[in-house]
Amino acid sequence: MYVDNEKVERVFLKVEKIIVVDPGRSKCGYAVMNMNADILDKGIAETSGLVIVLGDLICRNNIRDIVLGKGTFYSAVDQMIKTNFKEVLIHYEEEKNTTFEARKRYFECNPPQGIWKYIPLGLQAPPVPIDDYAAVIIGERFIFGHNK
Q1: How much of the chain is helix, strand and coil, in % rounded to 5?
Q2: How far apart are the C-alpha atoms of 85 and 26, rounded to whole Å?
Q3: How far apart are CA 103 and CA 120, in angstroms?
Q4: Is 144 left (phi over 0), alpha (psi -120 to 50) or beta?
Q5: Which of 20, 84, 133, 139 has its CA 20 to 30 A from that of 41?
Q6: Rg of the chain over CA atoms, in angstroms?
Q7: CB within 8 A of 87, min separation 6: which ones?
Q8: Tell me: the pLDDT tens digits for 62-113?
């Protein structure tokens, strides 16, 4: 069963934990979160291996709901999830500006050290991919919208 957030009142959802996916052509960020927006797990997987990662996360965390960002390459990832996890509900959340917010969150969690702390953050790029941080931002949008 698939759920479009625009057609369902989130207040009636009884969700305990979610997997959030920030889809991309070559890699996807993911996060497992509870409905208090606590991050239980997060990481980055190659898109080609996402089914294995999601299967493991679903089993280990007893997940029934996946929140999928509606951005780059989302339709292919959506189809992948629908094909392999028929028992999971898929919710959709907008991704607008998540990369910018993820970059900001990365530097909040990992402040620059040494000489880098004197260089404005606007001139720096994170040294690692931040797709997992983008997944967290998407998850927070879903959760905070859900708890209104």
Answers
A1: 45, 25, 30
A2: 21
A3: 13
A4: alpha
A5: 84
A6: 16
A7: 64
A8: 999 999 999 878 999 999 999 999 999 999 999 999 999 999 999 999 999 9
The overall pTM is greater than 0.85: yes
Q: Round to whole Å and give the CA distance between 119 and 39.
A: 29
- Residue appearing with tokens 């996916």: 21
Element (H, E) at 46: strand 39-46
Handedness of CA 39, 41, 46, 47 (dihedral sign): negative
Q: Which residue bears the tokens 């997992």? A: 132
Cβ count within 10 A of residue 126: 14
Contact 127, 62 (CB under 8 A): no
CA–CA dist 120, 70 (Å, integer)? 31
